[in-house]
Amino acid sequence: MTALTLSTAAATGLRADAIVVGVAKGAGSKGGLVVAPGAEAVDKAYDGKLASVLETLGASGGEGEVTKLPAPSGFKAPVVVAVGLGEVPEKDETYGTDALRRAAGAAARALTGSKKAAFALPVEDAEDAGALAEGALLGAYSFDAYKGMADAKSAKKNGKGAKAPLAEVALLGGKPRDKAYKAAVDRAVAVAEELNRARDLVNTPPNDLNPEAFAAVAQAAAKEHGIKVQVLDEKALTKGGFGGILGVGVGSEAPPRLVKLSYTSSKAKKHLAFVGKGITYDSGGISLKPAGHNETMKCDMAGAAAVFAAVVAAARLGLEVNVTGWLALAENMPSGSATRPGDVLRMYSGKTVEVLNTDAEGRLVLADAIAKASEDQPDAIVDVATLTGAMMMALGNRTFGIMANDDAFRASIHEIAEEVGEPSWPMPLPTDLRKGMDSPTADIANMGERMGGGLVAGLFLKEFVGEGITWAHLDIAGPAFHEGAPYGYTPKGGTGSAVRTLVRLAEHTASGDLG
């Protein structure tokens, strides 16, 4: 993990591989490039002409744009890195925290292989410092566990060794002795480290991360951070009547697990339950996915990874709220023992489900976990899942959908997600779509109308929420796994989607901001 410090040192005299400054697009048609606050000393070293030099090099100040140039004479860092912040803020406004987060992430990625960089970006308050810290740590992320040549000397000789992430970031303009600044950075480190752990889990190949292995990772982290953990294996699941989880996992040689992680605070007045879909590999089962849709299905446990990371982060931050995480883990495989289309499963809640499509498996494991979580009577349940392609069709690859049985709670989660920089959108649960899941054989079918499929899945889950319990469903199918080029602090592969939303929800609940 990249080391991070607050520093009051001057950019001109700091020993580093690079100095990072911010630039932005000026307002209006004749705006031109503007050097952002924090870079005054650097600009002065260029005789006040840093903006014009960068414009000559083609810089526009566009969000995430990175331009490198030699540092002026007298600097102890050889390179200045200018990163775009987007539009200059309106009068009396400041750069938004997510603009800072994205810029720091882009700069950190651009400095892969460097030992140390000084970030002279805008810092108005502790919140800005926290955003920059978070962005830098997320942007510096790299998953290299399976890369590298067997012969290290040969790798060095041929120049093929993987470059290490940026090793150290010094945030200039910070206040190392200020409690608010220190708390903001400490929070950023805890959240970023756990979010990056979630990314690691999503990126780990399914031959190394089956339900049992995921449960072992959760057990180790729980022991480290004082979290109570309970793992139900296939025997306990059978005895308990978890027909949904067992029905999905029965076709695999790697049996399913249900993991309960319990973080408790002696000062807590509220209890949140987070439930994550943890399909460690999804072939579609007997309803096999078509060619071209299997290659990234190691990411189908991203919801469970997000829940796991959020519970550990809550423990590390010592939040005054009880948080229980439920990881519904299974591998969905086709075999002679696999659940068939037409089979009926008796769920943990007692309801029966006719399985019309074995590739609609995530809702089955979630339904059991939601019903189990409801027994604790939490103040709210939030489930997180890479659930439907339909949600990707509706909202694209970067935005997750939010459904809930309470409009105010749905609105609160949407506001919280936007606050932390996770694009989301509130979605309805139209009652007319429920009829499509009527089954002549069972209480409900796991499929309904094709149009509005993401909403149908939400309606299915709603059926298993305990009476009187506030519930929300986050369908992160789009943003959980990024297949394109990295941008901002978002890498290629697992993103850690929803981790920050869950952590901030826990923080708001702990502070009493949510009823």
Number of helices: 15
**Compute the gyration radius: what is it?**
24 Å
Return the average pLDDT rounded to an integer: 95
Strand order of the largest sheet: 8-9-11-10-14-18-15-16
Shape: elongated
Number of E-type strands:
20
Q: What structural category do the secondary elements indicate?
A: alpha/beta
Runs in which pLDDT lies below 50 for 5 or more consecutive residues are none
Task: Please describe what this structure looks like.
The protein has 515 residues and is α/β, with parallel strands linked by helices. It is built from 15 helices and 20 strands. It has helices at residues 40-45, 50-56, 97-110, 126-139, 152-158, 179-203, 211-225, 234-240, 243-249, 302-317, 362-374, 389-395, 407-420, 453-462, 499-511; strands at 3-7, 18-25, 33-35, 66-70, 79-87, 116-120, 168-172, 228-232, 257-263, 271-282, 322-332, 344-346, 352-354, 380-385, 400-404, 424-426, 444-445, 470-475, 481-482, 493-494. The strands form 4 sheets. An 8-stranded mixed beta sheet has the order 8-9-11-10-14-18-15-16, sandwiched between helices. A hairpin with an 8-residue loop joins strand 4 and strand 5 (79-87). Helix 4 runs parallel beside helix 6 (179-203), helix 6 packs antiparallel against helix 10 and helix 10 (302-317) runs parallel beside helix 15 (499-511).
